[in-house]
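Fig. S4 source data, part A: sequence.
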Amino acid sequence: MTRSQTPLRALVLCPGRGSYQRDSLGSLAGIESPALDVLDGWRLARGQPTVRELDAAERFSARLHIAGEQASLLTAGISLADLDQLDPDRIEVVAVCGNSMGWYTALGYAGALSLPDMACLVDTMGGYQAPDRLGVVGGQLVYPLTDETWHVDPALREAVDAAVATIPDLYWSIRLGGQAVLGGTEEALRAARERLPPRVMGDREFPLRLPLHSAFHTPLMRPTADRAAEDLAELGWQAPRLPLVDGFGRVWRPRWADPAGLRDYTLGPQVTETFDFTTMLATALGDYGPDVVILPGPGSNLGGAIAQVMIARRWKGLRDRDDFLARQASDRPVLISLRRPEQRGLACRDAARSTP
């Protein structure tokens, strides 16, 4: 794109905590980011390792890079650092949303919370999972619902619905495009793994347990939500400067959004009720008609779920996986993942840098 062209209208979709993986180490090398400076200052003032320090670790470890008390702000920090690199001559952000914990990042990026308050929210919610606090509550597992064309198989979805309906303490946690994320107690998750038909995709076997993840977005998290409402009562909520779309598919608009409503949703239903990523993204695509969806880091593993929602809606004429991949290989992809160097160059000022 030349400087004289109209900027692409973009929907920003912030990823959740599980997106930081082994190959994400070093994501921040060479990046300058005012937002990250704020988050690192927050951590330093509390004697905690900074986002930059976590990302620059010599080796990947579960304690540093997966456990919620470290991984949560690490994920948010990399997302915000990537978004700081967007070139306003090429990208006009028209709306913001986020998957699961990515909702907290979206609140900070859209201005519903100041960055220090967003850091407090992220660190507090992630910190509850530390062994000396509330600990990990239950867990989550992932189960794919699509065939090889990325269309949802009704029989697989029915199998998941039947499992949720009949296994005590098993819940839909996230409706993630063509994937089911289920949350529940240890006993419920064991029963689900025995009940659901085994599937192999690539080198992974499903149902797949997510390590060190609590059963977020289920009723099991009610004590966590109650604790958060008390601990985070002083956060300074305000109407966002950019439209926000939440996990119910509800839009929070600049100037008109009720700050108390944003607080009550974020510290209540967002924690204890199903997060409907599918409806969230479908609403954002329909209401704001972006040219492109931008996925900041870390990683790019949310791309498949985004594509599956686009395909289900026939967005921009996409009918199946092959259509999506062909469009991604063109000079006008529908999804720009900022952790893919060839796509980062379409949106960022630092396009020349090599990203993990």
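Fig. S4 source data, part B ends here. Confidence is low (pLDDT under 50) at residues 352-356.
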